[in-house]
Amino acid sequence: MCSNGSKRFVDRDWSIEIDTAVAHFYYLVMKTIGLIGGMSWESSALYYRLINEETKRRLGGHHNAPSLMVTVDFADVERLQHQGEWKQLASLLVNAAQNLERGGADFIVLCTNTMHKLADAITAAVGIPLLHIVDATAAGINKSHQKRVGLLATKFTMEEAFYAERMRHKFGIEVIVPSPPSRQLVHDVIYKELCHGVIREESRERYQQIIRELARTGAQSIILGCTEIELLISRDDSPLPTYPSTTIHAHAAVDFALGN
After folding, report:
1. Can you name the residues that pair with 224 across neighbouring β-strands?
2. Which of 43, 49, 75, 83 is nearest to 64 (CA)?
3. Is-catalytic flag, 195?
4. Mean pLDDT over each residue of the chain, to the nearest integer
């Protein structure tokens, strides 16, 4: 007791209690993330870990992100991709997105770069937003004021227009891709190794050679534009600065969920 009879709370850290209360408030208002996963499950597991690690980093304590995941069978997806059956794939993703919406998701995160080829089909079929991986990645690139970036991804992403055109038309970023033989190698490593959780040092070295090839053609940095590539190539493995699309997309999902 003080001399005037009032109590002194000398053993209480009010700042911790206030911080805890603020974090709890943010968690209560945090949007539910709807994840479309399974393409492949290796990268979906990475998304889940990154989202929850980032949520805990920001809110502290035992907090993790409220989320739902619908997982599609990558055996079907891979087969239909290489058969060019994109209408069937669109139906598959639309069904997954609608299930997430019915389940209470507030927005959708499509856990793959390649399948953003079908982003418009998803957004047309649901009433909740899709957090586009190109937009999230481009936002990071624009902070560095770079305008020529190399892209490592599946052949679908590197060779078709949906990715590079969005980068160029919406953000003014020019995308540079490797030579045809190098594109095939990058693609094969993704599907034959990384999607199966196989990490080979010789594949890492070949990717590093391709990054140097892109640097010689004018690339200022590299987009790791397949969600599995981060299993093989880290920032320290690249002779150029990297933009890891999985990490960027996952952190953007936490931003969006917290209302930032």
Report:
1. 152, 244
2. 49
3. no
4. 91
For helices 180-192 and 201-216, the axis angle rounded to 10 degrees is 150
Global pTM reads 0.87
Question: How far is 136 from 116, CA to CA, in rounded Å?
Answer: 13
Residue 234 corresponds to which amino acid? S
The CA distance from 186 to 222, in Å, is 13
**Domains by residue range for the chain, with CATH:** 14-132+249-257 (3.40.50.1860), 134-244 (3.40.50.1860)
Active site residue 226: yes
Strand partners, 107: 33
Summarize pLDDT for 7-59 with one digit per residue, the tens: 333 344 434 444 566 565 566 789 999 999 999 999 999 999 999 999 999 99
Letter for the amino acid at 117? K
Q: How far is CA 18 from CA 12, 25, 27, 98, in A?
A: 12, 11, 14, 39
Q: Catalytic one among 55, 111, 154, 226?
A: 226
Place of tokens 């389940």: 103
Catalytic residue among 55, 111, 112, 114: 112
